[in-house]
Give the backbone structure.
Amino acid sequence: LTRWTWDPVGGEEALGAYTRARFTTAEGAPSNRARHLALSAEGDLWLISDRGLSTRFASSGVWSHEEVRRLDLNLTPACLGADGLIPWAAAVDLDLDRESGEVYVAFEGAVVRLSPSGALRCWRRGAELPNHAIRSVSVNPHPGARQGELWAGTDGGAYRYNEALGWQGFT
């Protein structure tokens, strides 16, 4: 994974140069195979790889990594199966709400919201979501979007979610 950053010279946007930062296993990344990534307002890098869900915190340069999330089925209903496991490497997309810090991960069978406190919310295909394979997720995708507006792209069309209205389909 390589990140290019424009560094202006003397505060002049027109002057400057790109700098490169590489994030591989040699630099502490959990995998060299990043599939989906998102950058927070603080510059933290979130990614899904063949090894799971990872975060590189910009302030410290430290990586956090989780291959599987085990849910307490007494507190949270099963999200992706009866076993209560969320295998992050199976994700099909990732986005984050830069205002709230919430991370959204799409799986073929569910959309999962992970809050900064670690709380988890799951919308399942065929239950809270229509019974279509989920392919993508996007938070506040355009300037006119309501804060916290979540979109899921599926084989059956696009679906929008917000707390007040729930899921609405556009096919």
Observations:
- The CA atoms of residues 123 and 129 lie 6 Å apart.
